[in-house]
């Protein structure tokens, strides 16, 4: 079926200014990803010892911590259904406020959980961590899609991919902010103090960030696309049922289009931090590179700067060449990159930094256009639900299991990252197939198309 670009309906205008859209979409995802990365870093640095002290060995402790890390990804599709329902039924603005509150409160509560060694908390502490992690995932399940729609549904014609990079910048910003906080703590307090109370500071500090995010979002005006749905009396009673009836193939397509992006990102952050800081000659577990924690975090931050730069670059490229051609080229590059893990990791500090820069640059190029690509697959009245489900189901297939699989492959290869790189390449091949089977979405009738 052919598609055309239509003008907005009379009376439907983009009343949110560009500055307001930039700040509201970017600050929300920055806070959300900050919260998420704080846990990811703590999952490597302190949680194995604090919450799983009875595990058999350090590797089992780490895998237990990563298993709880994955709980949030299981919750994310549920969050996409819950918040997607209200995003398509009540509106983008209200739903974005609710998702931010859900994630923010859960993150603050993680900062007050007693360690498992506390009398009476040997079971309660891990259980409370799982519950808060689930709530984090629930909130993030509704956050990304709403922020993406806030940007793209307010974008001028021919600028959706460019405006869609605004919320995507929240990922590198949140990562840098979270890790700068951890570095500051690691260099200003003793290791004993950091393990005792220092790790709690980033979680508790998120309360201030949430207040700022709420203040900005409460000033928003509903997007033109959703107001057009309301004017047409086309608000769906049960968006989940409608999206599965009208666009189930797009749900599958969007899920696998996002797969390589998720695997790449969580290998570049969680796995590289684990591998980079593991002892060269460990008493137990697979060997790593032996970097000091703070040194490697700075290397990661340098890489994430390139993530942010190439996220911005990806928008104009996706507008000029089309989303499909751009992502096909980047996905092929990711397949090749997976084969470079061994030579780059073996290249000393220069090689490791080059790997991080290259990997995060590819991450920016593939992640940047997703805020336009996934929503463009769905009609306006089921767009929040559809794009959120595709994005978050992909998180289970990609990010939820990626750290766990990577650690397992690393241990099976006697400390070599060769199998981890091949795993990334294999997931990118699946994404490439999905892209080849999907049509270009640059010129879809974005604000005018409503699902029957």
TrEMBL record:
Top-level taxon: Bacteria
Record function comment: May be a proton symporter involved in the uptake of osmolytes such as proline and glycine betaine.
Cell compartment(s), UniProt: Cell membrane
Name of protein: Putative proline/betaine transporter
Domain called Major facilitator superfamily (MFS) profile: residue spans: 21-442
Keywords: Cell membrane, Membrane, Symport, Transmembrane, Transmembrane helix, Transport
Similarity comment text for this entry: Belongs to the major facilitator superfamily. Metabolite:H+ Symporter (MHS) family (TC 2.A.1.6) family.
GO (cellular component) term, any one: plasma membrane
Family annotation (SUPFAM superfamilies): MFS general substrate transporter
MF GO annotations: symporter activity
PANTHER family (alphabetical): INNER MEMBRANE METABOLITE TRANSPORT PROTEIN YHJE (PTHR43045:SF2), SHIKIMATE TRANSPORTER (PTHR43045)
Predominant localisation class: membrane
InterPro entries referenced in this protein's UniProt entry, alphabetically: MFS, MFS_dom, MFS_trans_sf, Sugar_transporter_CS
Membrane topology: Multi-pass membrane protein
């Amino acid at each position: 079926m052919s598609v055309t670009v239509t003008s907005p309906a009379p009376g439907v205008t983009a009343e949110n200014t560009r500055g307001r859209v930039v700040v509201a979409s970017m600050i929300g995802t920055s806070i959300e990803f900050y919260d998420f990365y704080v846990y990811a870093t703590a999952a490597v640095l302190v949680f194995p010892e604090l919450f799983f002290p009875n595990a058999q060995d350090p590797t089992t402790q780490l895998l237990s911590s990563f298993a709880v890390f994955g709980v949030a990804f299981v919750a994310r599709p549920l969050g996409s259904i819950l918040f997607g329902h209200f995003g398509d039924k009540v509106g983008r603005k209200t739903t974005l406020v609710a998702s931010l509150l859900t994630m923010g409160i859960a993150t603050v509560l993680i900062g007050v959980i007693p360690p498992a060694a506390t009398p009476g908390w040997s079971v309660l502490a891990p259980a409370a961590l799982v519950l808060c992690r689930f709530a984090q995932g629930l909130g993030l399940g509704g956050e990304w899609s709403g922020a993406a729609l806030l940007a793209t549904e307010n974008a001028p014609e021919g600028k959706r991919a460019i405006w869609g990079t605004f919320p995507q910048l929240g990922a590198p910003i949140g990562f840098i902010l979270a890790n700068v906080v951890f570095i500051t703590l690691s260099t200003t307090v003793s290791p004993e103090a950091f393990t005792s109370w220092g790790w709690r500071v980033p979680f508790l500090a998120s309360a201030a960030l949430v207040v700022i995010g709420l203040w900005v979002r409460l000033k928003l005006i509903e997007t033109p696309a959703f107001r057009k749905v309301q004017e047409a009396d086309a608000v769906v009673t049960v968006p989940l049922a409608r999206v599965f009836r009208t666009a189930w193939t797009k749900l599958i397509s969007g899920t696998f289009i996002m797969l390589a992006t998720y695997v790449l990102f969580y290998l570049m952050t969680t796995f590289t931090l684990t591998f980079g800081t593991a002892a060269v000659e460990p008493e137990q577990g697979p060997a790593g590179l032996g970097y000091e924690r703070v040194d490697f975090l700075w290397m990661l931050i340098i890489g994430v700067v390139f993530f942010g730069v190439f996220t911005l670059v990806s928008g104009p490229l996706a507008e000029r060449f089309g989303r499909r051609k751009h992502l096909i080229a980047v996905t092929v590059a990711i397949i090749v990159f997976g084969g470079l893990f061994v030579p780059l990791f073996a290249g000393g500090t220069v090689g490791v930094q080059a790997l991080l820069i290259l990997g995060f640059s590819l991450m920016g190029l593939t992640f940047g256009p997703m805020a336009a690509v996934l929503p463009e697959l769905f009609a306006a009245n089921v767009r929040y639900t559809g794009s959120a489900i595709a994005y978050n189901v992909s998180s289970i297939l990609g990010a939820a299991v990626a750290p766990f699989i990577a650690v397992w492959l690393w241990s099976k290869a006697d400390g070599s990252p060769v199998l981890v790189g091949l795993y990334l390449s294999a997931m990118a091949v699946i994404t490439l197939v999905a892209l080849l089977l999907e049509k270009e979405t640059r010129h879809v009738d974005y604000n005018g198309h409503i699902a029957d």
